[in-house]
Amino acid sequence: MIYIFFLKLICILINKSKMKILRIYLDTSVIGGCFDQEFAEYSNILLNEAIERKRIGIISDITILELSFAPNSIFDYFNSLLYKFEIIKTNLFSKRGSISR
């Protein structure tokens, strides 16, 4: 009986380890929403899941460019988290280097 319990437990753990982590695209509305009282609750939940690696956060170089025009507090906050996200390069900026202020 104990053997069957452990066998089932092992199967559950193996299946959980094979599950893919959901990839989420973070655009300026999600990041800016973290600073907007109306959207802060859900935007922060989504962003924190990406920061904590519960989800894979994906941003594009266009989003980074758009955020370079955001207020300093938003840009600085986002810039400090940039290393936690997967960055998709679009053809639009592929010939340029990194985007900076």
Task: Please provide a written account of the structure.
By secondary structure, this protein is mainly alpha-helical. It has a single domain, classed as 5'-nuclease (Rossmann fold, 3-Layer(aba) Sandwich), CATH 3.40.50.1010. Helices cover 51% and strands 11% of the residues. The chain is built from 5 helices and 3 strands; from the N terminus they run H-E-H-H-E-H-H-E. It has a 3-stranded parallel β-sheet with strand order 1-2-3. The longest helix is centred in the first third of the chain and has 17 residues, at 2-18. The chain starts with a helix and ends in a 13-residue tail after the last strand. The mean pLDDT is 79.
Report strand %. 5-15%
SS-based class: mainly alpha
Anisotropy-based shape? globular
Q: How widely separated are the two ends?
A: 64 Å
- Helical content stands at 40-55%
N-to-C SSE string, H for helix and E for strand: HEHHEHHE
CATH topology: Rossmann fold
Structure summary, number of beta strands: 3
Number of helices: 5
CATH class placement:
Alpha Beta
Q: So, CATH architecture? A: 3-Layer(aba) Sandwich
Task: Supply database-style keywords.
101 residues; mainly alpha; Rossmann fold; 3-stranded parallel β-sheet; 3 strands; globular
